[in-house]
Recover the amino acids of this structure.
Protein backbone atom coordinates (compact mmCIF):
# COMPACT_ATOMS: atom_id res chain seq x y z
CA UNK A 1 0.00 0.00 0.00
CA UNK A 2 1.23 3.55 -0.66
CA UNK A 3 2.51 5.63 2.24
CA UNK A 4 -0.41 7.93 2.96
CA UNK A 5 1.77 10.15 5.17
CA UNK A 6 3.62 11.48 2.13
CA UNK A 7 0.41 12.70 0.45
CA UNK A 8 -1.61 13.81 3.46
CA UNK A 9 -2.66 17.42 3.46
CA UNK A 10 -0.93 19.63 6.02
CA UNK A 11 -2.95 20.66 9.08
CA UNK A 12 -5.27 23.57 8.42
CA UNK A 13 -3.21 25.85 10.65
CA UNK A 14 0.06 24.93 8.89
CA UNK A 15 -0.78 25.31 5.23
CA UNK A 16 1.94 26.69 2.93
CA UNK A 17 2.05 30.36 2.03
CA UNK A 18 1.39 31.41 -1.58
CA UNK A 19 4.05 33.87 -2.76
CA UNK A 20 2.16 34.87 -5.91
CA UNK A 21 -1.05 35.60 -4.00
CA UNK A 22 0.81 37.58 -1.35
CA UNK A 23 2.67 39.60 -4.00
CA UNK A 24 -0.57 40.36 -5.82
CA UNK A 25 -2.18 41.58 -2.59
CA UNK A 26 0.70 43.86 -1.64
CA UNK A 27 2.24 45.34 -4.78
CA UNK A 28 1.22 48.17 -7.05
CA UNK A 29 -0.11 51.71 -6.56
CA UNK A 30 3.30 53.11 -5.63
CA UNK A 31 3.58 51.13 -2.43
CA UNK A 32 6.71 49.99 -0.62
CA UNK A 33 6.61 46.28 -1.44
CA UNK A 34 7.91 45.02 -4.80
CA UNK A 35 7.85 41.26 -4.37
CA UNK A 36 7.21 38.52 -1.82
CA UNK A 37 9.37 35.41 -2.00
CA UNK A 38 8.54 32.26 -0.03
CA UNK A 39 11.16 29.55 0.42
CA UNK A 40 10.61 26.14 1.97
CA UNK A 41 13.77 26.21 4.09
CA UNK A 42 16.67 28.58 4.62
CA UNK A 43 19.49 29.17 7.05
CA UNK A 44 18.50 32.74 7.90
CA UNK A 45 16.19 35.11 6.04
CA UNK A 46 18.09 38.08 7.46
CA UNK A 47 21.47 36.74 6.36
CA UNK A 48 20.15 36.07 2.86
CA UNK A 49 18.78 39.61 2.48
CA UNK A 50 21.91 41.20 3.92
CA UNK A 51 23.89 39.44 1.18
CA UNK A 52 21.46 40.59 -1.48
CA UNK A 53 21.39 44.13 -0.12
CA UNK A 54 25.19 44.28 -0.34
CA UNK A 55 24.90 43.17 -3.97
CA UNK A 56 22.55 46.08 -4.72
CA UNK A 57 19.06 44.63 -4.33
CA UNK A 58 16.59 47.54 -4.18
CA UNK A 59 14.20 48.31 -1.36
CA UNK A 60 10.90 46.48 -0.99
CA UNK A 61 11.77 42.78 -1.12
CA UNK A 62 10.02 40.50 1.38
CA UNK A 63 11.52 37.07 2.09
CA UNK A 64 9.51 34.47 4.03
CA UNK A 65 10.79 31.05 5.10
CA UNK A 66 8.46 28.18 5.92
CA UNK A 67 11.30 26.80 8.03
CA UNK A 68 14.44 28.59 9.19
CA UNK A 69 17.24 26.30 10.30
CA UNK A 70 19.78 28.85 11.53
CA UNK A 71 17.62 31.71 12.76
CA UNK A 72 19.20 34.36 14.93
CA UNK A 73 17.89 36.87 17.40
CA UNK A 74 19.59 39.86 18.93
CA UNK A 75 23.13 39.13 20.24
CA UNK A 76 23.15 35.95 18.10
CA UNK A 77 20.58 34.17 20.23
CA UNK A 78 18.95 31.20 18.52
CA UNK A 79 15.38 31.48 17.18
CA UNK A 80 13.71 28.19 16.21
CA UNK A 81 10.20 27.25 15.11
CA UNK A 82 8.63 24.10 13.62
CA UNK A 83 7.96 24.27 9.86
CA UNK A 84 4.93 26.45 9.00
CA UNK A 85 4.11 27.02 12.68
CA UNK A 86 5.07 30.67 12.61
CA UNK A 87 6.01 33.61 10.45
CA UNK A 88 9.69 34.01 9.70
CA UNK A 89 9.98 37.08 7.49
CA UNK A 90 12.64 39.63 6.61
CA UNK A 91 12.29 42.85 4.63
CA UNK A 92 14.92 44.87 2.77
CA UNK A 93 14.80 48.63 3.27
CA UNK A 94 16.86 51.62 2.19
CA UNK A 95 15.56 54.42 4.44
CA UNK A 96 16.64 57.92 3.47
CA UNK A 97 16.88 59.15 7.06
CA UNK A 98 19.76 60.23 9.32
CA UNK A 99 21.77 57.23 10.50
CA UNK A 100 21.01 57.94 14.16
CA UNK A 101 17.26 57.55 13.51
CA UNK A 102 17.60 54.03 12.09
CA UNK A 103 17.31 52.49 15.55
CA UNK A 104 13.63 53.38 15.36
CA UNK A 105 13.11 50.76 12.64
CA UNK A 106 12.97 47.92 15.18
CA UNK A 107 10.48 49.91 17.24
CA UNK A 108 8.40 50.76 14.16
CA UNK A 109 8.35 47.06 13.27
CA UNK A 110 7.12 46.23 16.75
CA UNK A 111 4.25 48.70 16.52
CA UNK A 112 3.17 47.34 13.12
CA UNK A 113 3.33 43.78 14.46
CA UNK A 114 1.35 44.64 17.59
CA UNK A 115 -1.31 46.31 15.45
CA UNK A 116 -1.51 43.27 13.17
CA UNK A 117 -1.94 40.66 15.90
CA UNK A 118 -4.55 42.83 17.60
CA UNK A 119 -6.46 43.31 14.35
CA UNK A 120 -6.32 39.72 13.09
CA UNK A 121 -6.19 37.58 16.23
CA UNK A 122 -7.72 39.89 18.81
CA UNK A 123 -4.59 39.48 20.93
CA UNK A 124 -3.65 42.49 23.02
CA UNK A 125 0.14 42.40 23.09
CA UNK A 126 2.79 44.74 24.42
CA UNK A 127 6.26 45.75 23.29
CA UNK A 128 9.30 45.11 25.42
CA UNK A 129 12.12 47.46 24.45
CA UNK A 130 13.96 46.97 22.17
CA UNK A 131 12.75 44.00 20.17
CA UNK A 132 10.17 41.66 21.74
CA UNK A 133 6.40 41.32 21.34
CA UNK A 134 4.81 39.93 24.51
CA UNK A 135 1.44 38.41 25.28
CA UNK A 136 -0.64 39.72 28.18
CA UNK A 137 0.97 37.23 30.59
CA UNK A 138 4.49 38.41 29.65
CA UNK A 139 5.43 35.40 27.53
CA UNK A 140 7.11 36.03 24.19
CA UNK A 141 5.17 36.01 20.94
CA UNK A 142 7.81 37.42 18.61
CA UNK A 143 11.32 38.76 18.29
CA UNK A 144 12.70 41.40 15.94
CA UNK A 145 16.21 41.77 14.53
CA UNK A 146 17.45 44.74 12.47
CA UNK A 147 20.82 44.59 10.70
CA UNK A 148 22.57 47.24 8.63
CA UNK A 149 24.17 46.51 5.27
CA UNK A 150 25.68 49.74 3.95
CA UNK A 151 22.80 52.04 3.06
CA UNK A 152 20.32 49.23 3.56
CA UNK A 153 18.65 47.86 6.68
CA UNK A 154 17.25 44.33 6.87
CA UNK A 155 14.56 43.80 9.48
CA UNK A 156 13.54 40.29 10.44
CA UNK A 157 10.58 39.06 12.48
CA UNK A 158 9.97 35.67 14.04
CA UNK A 159 6.35 35.30 15.22
CA UNK A 160 4.87 32.17 16.79
CA UNK A 161 1.46 31.58 15.20
CA UNK A 162 0.23 27.97 15.58
CA UNK A 163 3.09 26.74 17.76
CA UNK A 164 1.87 24.35 20.46
CA UNK A 165 2.82 24.47 24.11
CA UNK A 166 5.08 21.41 23.79
CA UNK A 167 6.95 23.12 20.92
CA UNK A 168 7.75 26.28 22.89
CA UNK A 169 10.20 27.26 25.60
CA UNK A 170 8.70 28.10 28.99
CA UNK A 171 9.05 31.81 28.24
CA UNK A 172 7.25 31.62 24.87
CA UNK A 173 3.70 31.49 23.57
CA UNK A 174 1.89 31.69 20.22
CA UNK A 175 -1.01 33.61 18.73
CA UNK A 176 -3.19 30.48 18.71
CA UNK A 177 -2.54 29.89 22.41
CA UNK A 178 -3.08 33.55 23.31
CA UNK A 179 -6.23 33.83 21.19
CA UNK A 180 -7.63 30.43 22.12
CA UNK A 181 -8.36 29.65 18.48
CA UNK A 182 -6.52 29.03 15.16
CA UNK A 183 -4.97 32.03 13.41
CA UNK A 184 -4.26 32.25 9.68
CA UNK A 185 -0.61 33.05 8.95
CA UNK A 186 -1.23 34.71 5.60
CA UNK A 187 -3.80 37.09 7.06
CA UNK A 188 -1.40 38.09 9.85
CA UNK A 189 1.46 38.57 7.38
CA UNK A 190 -0.62 40.79 5.10
CA UNK A 191 -1.86 42.89 8.03
CA UNK A 192 1.69 43.30 9.34
CA UNK A 193 3.19 44.31 5.99
CA UNK A 194 0.39 46.80 5.31
CA UNK A 195 0.77 48.36 8.75
CA UNK A 196 4.53 48.46 8.30
CA UNK A 197 4.22 50.18 4.92
CA UNK A 198 1.93 52.91 6.28
CA UNK A 199 4.20 53.63 9.22
CA UNK A 200 7.47 53.38 7.25
CA UNK A 201 6.31 55.78 4.55
CA UNK A 202 5.13 58.28 7.15
CA UNK A 203 8.39 57.95 9.11
CA UNK A 204 10.68 58.32 6.08
CA UNK A 205 8.66 61.29 4.79
CA UNK A 206 9.38 62.90 8.17
CA UNK A 207 13.10 62.09 7.69
CA UNK A 208 13.02 59.62 10.55
CA UNK A 209 11.53 62.05 13.06
CA UNK A 210 9.71 59.78 15.55
CA UNK A 211 7.64 62.65 16.97
CA UNK A 212 6.22 64.38 13.89
CA UNK A 213 5.57 60.99 12.24
CA UNK A 214 3.50 59.89 15.24
CA UNK A 215 5.71 56.86 15.80
CA UNK A 216 7.01 57.82 19.25
CA UNK A 217 3.53 58.38 20.66
CA UNK A 218 2.22 55.10 19.26
CA UNK A 219 5.26 53.15 20.40
CA UNK A 220 4.82 54.39 23.96
CA UNK A 221 1.15 53.37 23.84
CA UNK A 222 2.19 49.76 23.14
CA UNK A 223 5.37 49.67 25.23
CA UNK A 224 5.35 47.91 28.62
CA UNK A 225 8.96 48.88 29.42
CA UNK A 226 8.69 52.65 29.71
CA UNK A 227 7.37 53.60 33.12
CA UNK A 228 8.47 50.36 34.74
CA UNK A 229 11.25 49.62 37.19
CA UNK A 230 13.77 47.54 35.25
CA UNK A 231 16.85 45.44 35.79
CA UNK A 232 19.41 45.90 33.01
CA UNK A 233 22.14 43.33 32.40
CA UNK A 234 25.13 44.78 30.56
CA UNK A 235 27.39 42.87 28.13
CA UNK A 236 30.07 42.48 30.81
CA UNK A 237 27.57 40.84 33.16
CA UNK A 238 27.13 43.83 35.47
CA UNK A 239 23.58 44.70 36.49
CA UNK A 240 21.92 48.04 37.14
CA UNK A 241 18.44 48.96 38.30
CA UNK A 242 16.35 51.99 37.65
CA UNK A 243 13.14 53.34 36.18
CA UNK A 244 12.73 53.36 32.38
CA UNK A 245 11.53 56.91 31.80
CA UNK A 246 11.50 57.37 28.03
CA UNK A 247 12.75 56.40 24.58
CA UNK A 248 14.81 59.21 23.08
CA UNK A 249 14.98 60.54 19.51
CA UNK A 250 17.58 57.93 18.59
CA UNK A 251 15.53 55.00 19.94
CA UNK A 252 17.60 54.65 23.11
CA UNK A 253 16.01 53.66 26.41
CA UNK A 254 16.42 56.38 29.04
CA UNK A 255 16.79 54.85 32.52
CA UNK A 256 16.98 56.83 35.75
CA UNK A 257 19.36 55.14 38.18
CA UNK A 258 20.69 56.22 41.59
CA UNK A 259 23.80 57.40 39.71
CA UNK A 260 21.82 59.49 37.22
CA UNK A 261 20.26 59.14 33.77
CA UNK A 262 21.56 56.52 31.35
CA UNK A 263 20.76 56.40 27.62
CA UNK A 264 21.01 52.81 26.44
CA UNK A 265 21.10 51.68 22.81
CA UNK A 266 19.99 48.13 22.07
CA UNK A 267 23.59 47.09 21.44
CA UNK A 268 24.59 48.39 24.88
CA UNK A 269 22.57 45.82 26.82
CA UNK A 270 22.17 42.06 27.10
CA UNK A 271 18.81 41.96 28.88
CA UNK A 272 16.21 44.43 30.10
CA UNK A 273 13.66 42.96 32.49
CA UNK A 274 10.82 44.48 34.46
CA UNK A 275 11.09 43.99 38.20
Amino acid sequence: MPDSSSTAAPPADRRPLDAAALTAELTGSGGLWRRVEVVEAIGSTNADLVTRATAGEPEGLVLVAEHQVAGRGRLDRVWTSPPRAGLTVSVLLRPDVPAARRAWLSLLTGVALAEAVSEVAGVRASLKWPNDLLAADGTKLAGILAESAGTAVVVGVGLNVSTRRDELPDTGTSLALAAGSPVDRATVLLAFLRAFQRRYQRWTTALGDPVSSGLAQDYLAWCSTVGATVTVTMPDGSVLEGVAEAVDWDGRLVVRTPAGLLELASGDVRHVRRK
User: Anything to note?
Assistant: Confidence is low (pLDDT under 50) at residues 1-6. The chain has two domains: 4-220, 225-274.
